[in-house]
Amino acid sequence: MLSHVVLFRLRSDLGQAEREAFVHALEVALRDISTIRGFRIGRRVTFGAGYEKGLPDFEFCGVIDFDDLAGLRAYLEHPAHEDIGARFNASIEEGLVYDYEMGGPAQARTLLQKIDAKPSPTRDEDVTG
Q1: How confident is the model over 48-105, as pLDDT tens digits?
Q2: Which domain holds residue 22?
Q3: Domain with 31 in it: what CATH number?
Q4: Would you say 58 and 10 are in contact if contact means Cβ atoms under 8 Å apart?
Q5: Would you put residue 94 in left (φ > 0), alpha (ψ -120 to 50) or beta?
Q6: Cβ of 75: how many Cβ atoms within 10 Å?
Q7: Considering its fold, how many domains does the chain have in total?
Q8: How far apart are CA 127 and CA 129, in angstroms?
């Protein structure tokens, strides 16, 4: 599985109409892009843990899951992504986007061994696992 992880902070002056348009673009993308296997969004929780100190504060996290790199590419090239990308960029103060090859506990050894075997795949390589 490949997870597209987006950390972001919304603009403080983002109006209600802009919020609605952003949510609508997200709903359209989730409905129309068949390679999306899962979607989650959440708000950061802080409770005084030591690892929270000194980190930048990205209030929101979105995770979109795909079967593989081909699925992520199809999402990025889909017309609905163009709209959500434009609305996302217009709605945030700051954001980070990362893509991760993911696996469960049974795949941990394989994923961690790949670190020694070869570097992370680039956009031009195929992700397997």
Answers
A1: 999 999 889 999 999 999 999 999 999 999 999 999 999 999 999 999 999 999 988 8
A2: 2-102
A3: 3.30.70.100
A4: no
A5: beta
A6: 20
A7: 1
A8: 7
Residue 93: which H helix or E strand, with range?
strand 92-101
C-alpha–C-alpha distance, residues 48 and 42, integer Å: 19
Record the pTM: 0.82
Q: Can you give the pLDDT at residue 99?
A: 98
Q: For residue 121, is it within any domain?
A: no
Identify the band that residue 20 occupies on the pLDDT scale cut at 50, 70 and 90: very high
Whether the Cβ atoms of residue 28 and residue 80 lie closer than 8 Å to each other: yes
Structure tokens at 35: 């390679």
Rounded to whole angstroms, how far apart are CA atoms 25 and 14?
16
Count CB-CB contacts under 10 A for residue 121.
16
Q: What's the pLDDT score for residue 107?
A: 81
